């Protein structure tokens, strides 16, 4: 606003997200497995299979965190390809790099600390960008979507994997109890951090549903935007192209 209140709020959200991922980074992979009963691996596998990454392509794993996608894309893109793991948070990036190095990956990965809202890459550079469980944390989502569109090549694709709105009322009820009551307690016991997992539940509730996100992507300039519901819409995979 005129008085700068919006700026203060935005900075607050960015600082809060930074603190949360600093705090959860060490236990991030373990908590993902526990909280989703391992199902996040299936959501990720579906995304990787939908990505159609081929040898020689340039891939951006945006908000890539501990690098689950990067590790797979590195193999798919091969020696002549290039994979960039970008994340705003240095603790998450460091854990990702360590994990990937321990797996002995080929030499086609770069690590970049970057904000999705203003990506530090050339125009028309990437064949494919994945943005998994990251958009929810971004303060200015429209800005991030335009920044992604700018760095995609014409013909390139964006895949957004994100929590969404369960499609069955009964599932929504169970899910609400689970995310608002069980998750924070799990966070407290396993990661000694109830607050961050309360934020997780709240950020999921606030995030745009399937059709709203589809519209946001179309408004940002993506074409042929479609989505698939996974696990009854608890998660959705949106795809969009730049032409
Ligand atoms: N993509 C990984 C996965 O699926 O396991 C990590 C997801 S993790 C829930 C969200 C990540 O988004 C964190 O590593 C966080 O640091 C990153 N993040 C949050 N805001 C960001 C921003 N504005 N730009 C880039 N990364 C951001």
Automatic annotation (TrEMBL):
Can you name one GO molecular function term for this protein? demethylmenaquinone methyltransferase activity
UniProt cross-references to CDD domains, sorted A to Z: AdoMet_MTases (cd02440)
Could you tell me which InterPro entries the record lists for this protein? SAM-dependent_MTases_sf, UbiE/COQ5_MeTrFase, UbiE/COQ5_MeTrFase_CS
- Sorted UniProt keywords: Menaquinone biosynthesis, Methyltransferase, S-adenosyl-L-methionine, Transferase, Ubiquinone biosynthesis
Q: Which reaction does it catalyse?
A: a 2-demethylmenaquinol + S-adenosyl-L-methionine = a menaquinol + S-adenosyl-L-homocysteine + H(+); a 2-methoxy-6-(all-trans-polyprenyl)benzene-1,4-diol + S-adenosyl-L-methionine = a 5-methoxy-2-methyl-3-(all-trans-polyprenyl)benzene-1,4-diol + S-adenosyl-L-homocysteine + H(+)
* Annotated Pfam families: Ubie_methyltran (PF01209)
Q: What is its EC number?
A: 2.1.1.163, 2.1.1.201
- Residues reported to bind S-adenosyl-L-methionine: 66, 87, 115-116
Tell me the route in metabolism or biology where this protein functions.
Answer: Cofactor biosynthesis; ubiquinone biosynthesis; Quinol/quinone metabolism; menaquinone biosynthesis; menaquinol from 1,4-dihydroxy-2-naphthoate: step 2/2
| Protein role | Methyltransferase required for the conversion of demethylmenaquinol (DMKH2) to menaquinol (MKH2) and the conversion of 2-polyprenyl-6-methoxy-1,4-benzoquinol (DDMQH2) to 2-polyprenyl-3-methyl-6-methoxy-1,4-benzoquinol (DMQH2).
Tell me its family: Belongs to the class I-like SAM-binding methyltransferase superfamily. MenG/UbiE family.
Name of the protein in question: Ubiquinone/menaquinone biosynthesis C-methyltransferase UbiE
